[in-house]
Every structure is written in structure tokens, then in C-alpha cells.
Amino acid sequence: MKKITLLGLFLFSGITIYAQDNKQWTLEACVDYALENNISIKQSELDTKLTDIDKSQAIMDFLPTVSANSSYYINTGANVNPSTNQFENQTFRSASGGLNSSMNLFSGLQNWKTLQRSKINIIATQYQLDKMRDDISIYVANAFVEILYNKEQIKVLESQNKITKENLTRTKELVDAGVLPQGDLLEIKATDATQIQQIIAAENDLFISKIGLAQLLQIKDYQSFDIAEEDYGLFPDAILEEDASTIIAKAKEEVYDVKIAEANLELAEKDLELTKTTYYPTLSAYMGYSTRWSSTNLDFITGEQMGFFDQLSTFDGTSLGVQLSVPIFNGLTTRNNVKRSQINVERSKYLLEQANLDLESQVYQAYNDAKNAKKSYEAAMQTSEARQLAFEYAQERYTVGLSNAFDFNQSAITYENAQSDVVRTKYEYIFKVKVLEFYFGIPIDQINYN
């Protein structure tokens, strides 16, 4: 009941905001707050935006590229005049400009496969985000149930101490009357002091558990942070009536571990297809338009300096062409890259198989844990009822002087331990059933009350 793992602390390390006006937090409020403010989730949401950009880029790669260029020079000495292509040993100015476009006609369907991969990656990234949300919900629920346990444990200890104080008063009266020896009074006082120490320790455990949940939510006001005071009774356990195989089948639909592994396998297979496209020739087309100007160009008819726009229209030109590139030998780079991709596919298949095995193991473990937790709780209840009767009987015998304080205290301690076991097994049962329901697709933040 007191496990808050390092992974949980890491996942929640980024949530930033303060407690508000001594708010009493419900489990649903805690989970919603964490899901809304956790930085790890926000970072994962950014990853989904990046995958959307990758898809957009894959679509744009089908379109031709267009670029423009221009240049301006001042030339001195012997230089080639860009307009006449003749050497001129004088200072002159020149300019040129152009517009170019190219388009990939064929590259082994690389663009198409890249687009398909980007769509798969969007799904895989969304699965990762959803899994992170589920993990965070479980860590919050665990910390929340721990607080419930500590609260009820304090109530048990205070109830026992109240009985002890009543017995202390009666014992003192009997000792003063000479009916009981002084040792009985000292024994009861020792029990009272021990119980007070237990209450203090339990209150400290409660405070620590509140700090744990507050830190998960990055709430700084530890003193006023508290969860809602509600009667969290046991809820229906119909999930335990389901067959384990049915829960496993449902878990594969609801839990994201297997889905992530499946998506990763699809990505690996698509990467292999993309790598194989480098075996194919590539065919591309291009088109260009260019023009130029020089300060020394003369009109062939008038012999006068040609105007700027006259030169641009006179010395312009276009170019059209296609380019075919056939891979012949590149040091077996493509072949080795394909082999690497094939190995990654095989690795992803093993990871998928392992994910299925892990999920089945986790569900079976959760199923058995929940059933055993129910049995433990029922046994603790029966033990507590029996210990209560024994305690009441011991109390009656002590009151009439048929037993000593030591025997009475031993009975009280045994009853107290039995009550504590009821509280402990109750909340273990609650949490383990919630985990099992989580695998069945029931949100972790839903607690039903009797």
C-alpha cells in the first residue's frame, strides 16, 4: 500500500500549479488534473504534432520543387561577359537570374511508402500518449488509495485508544478502591502510551502519503492538501466473475502495450520497404528558365548600349530534360541497409510476441491478486469479528476481576491488529480490483460506493 515508484515520480515531475483554497480532491479530480498538467504528457502531445507535420511533408514531397536565383557582379580585369561569353579586359557589371523546377517521376514508390509510414507513425505515437495517460492514472490511484488506508487506520487506532482510556478510568477507580493491584493500572497506562505512539506514527504516515500525492500533482501547499471525505466502501466485484481469458482478450483491445508493439512492427516493415526502394533506378524531370544582363552589351544594329529589359528578353533561354540514375555498386551499402531493416523486423516480431506474453502474465497476476485480496479481506473480517467477541469477553472478565491487566491488554492488542488487517486488506482489495477493471477497459478513476 505504500509503493510510489521512481517511475511514477518521473512521470509526474513536470506538473506545475498550486493547491486552490483547501480543495478537497476526489480521485477523479486528481486524475483529471494530472492528465491535464503533466509535462510528460504535454511532451508526448508535441510528438503527435510532429508526426502530423511528417505526414504533411510526405504529401508535399509528391509536388515538384520550384526555386529562383539571381546574381549581380562587378568584374575587373579579364573576365567572361555572361551575355556574350567573351573575355573582356575591362570593368563591367553583370547580372543573371533564373527559375528552376524539378520533379521526381519514379524512385521505387519511395514517396508513397513514406506517406504510408507517416500514417502508421501517427497511430503509434497516439498509442504511446494513451499508454502514458493510463500509467499516470494508475500511479495517482495508488497514491490516492494509500491516503484512504492511512485515514481509516487512524480511525481504528483512535477507537481502540478510546476504549483503553475508558478502561484506564475504571481501573484507576478499582485500584483506588483496593479491588485491583497497582500493577494493573500501570499496565493499562503503558498500553495507552503505546497506542498514542501508534496514532502519532499513523498520522505521520498519513501526512507523508498526502505529500506523496501532492508531489505527484506538484502542489506545494502540503499542509492544506487533502482528499475528499467520502464513505469509500467496497464496490461490486463483478469483474471477478469474468474468466481470465475473457479479460485478456478485452485487455488486448483496451490496453496499449500490444497495440504499440503492433504499430512498431508495421513501422519496421515499412522501413524495410523504404530501404528496398534504393535498389530501383530514379527518374526525374527538370525545367529551367534563365536570363542575363551586362553593362557593356551593345546593340548589334545601332551600336548603342542595350537597355536592361531589352537584354533580359534577348539573352533569355529555357531548358527541359529528364535524368535517369541507375544504382550499380555502392559498396553493398543498400544491401546491408536492407539486412539491417530485416533484422529490425524480426526484432519487432519478437517484441510483439513478448508484449502479448507480458500482457497475459500481467492480467493473470492481476486476476489472481484480486481474487486473493478478496479472500484475504473476507478472512480478515471473520478474524476481526472473532477477535472482537474475544475482546469483549476479556473485557467483561477484567471488569469483574477474573483476569489481570496483562491478559486483557493482550486481547486488546490482538483485536487491534485484527482491525488493522481489515483496513489493510480492504484497500488492497479495492486497488487490485481497480487494476483488474483497468485491464477490462473500466477507467481507473471510477470508484463506486456501497
What are its keywords?
450 residues; alpha+beta; Outer membrane efflux proteins (OEP); four-stranded antiparallel sheet; 8 strands; 63% helix; elongated; disordered N terminus; membrane; transport; signal; cell outer membrane
List the helices and strands and how they pair.
Layout: H1 6-11, E1 24-25, H2 27-37, H3 39-60, E2 65-75, E3 78-80, E4 87-89, E5 92-106, H4 110-176, H5 182-216, E6 226-227, H6 244-254, H7 256-276, E7 282-294, H8 308-314, E8 317-325, H9 333-399, H10 405-439
Parallel strand pairs: 1-6
Antiparallel strand pairs: 2-5, 3-4, 5-7, 7-8
How does this structure look, described?
By secondary structure, this protein is of the alpha+beta class. The protein has 10 helices and 8 strands. It has helices at 6-11, 27-37, 39-60, 110-176, 182-216, 244-254, 256-276, 308-314, 333-399, 405-439, and strands at 24-25, 65-75, 78-80, 87-89, 92-106, 226-227, 282-294, 317-325. Strand 3 and strand 4 (87-89) form a beta hairpin. Helix 4 runs antiparallel to helix 5, helix 4 (110-176) packs antiparallel against helix 10 (405-439) and helix 9 runs antiparallel to helix 10 (405-439). The two termini are 22 Å apart. Mean pLDDT is 86; it is low at 1-21. Residues 1-19 form the signal peptide. Its main location: membrane.
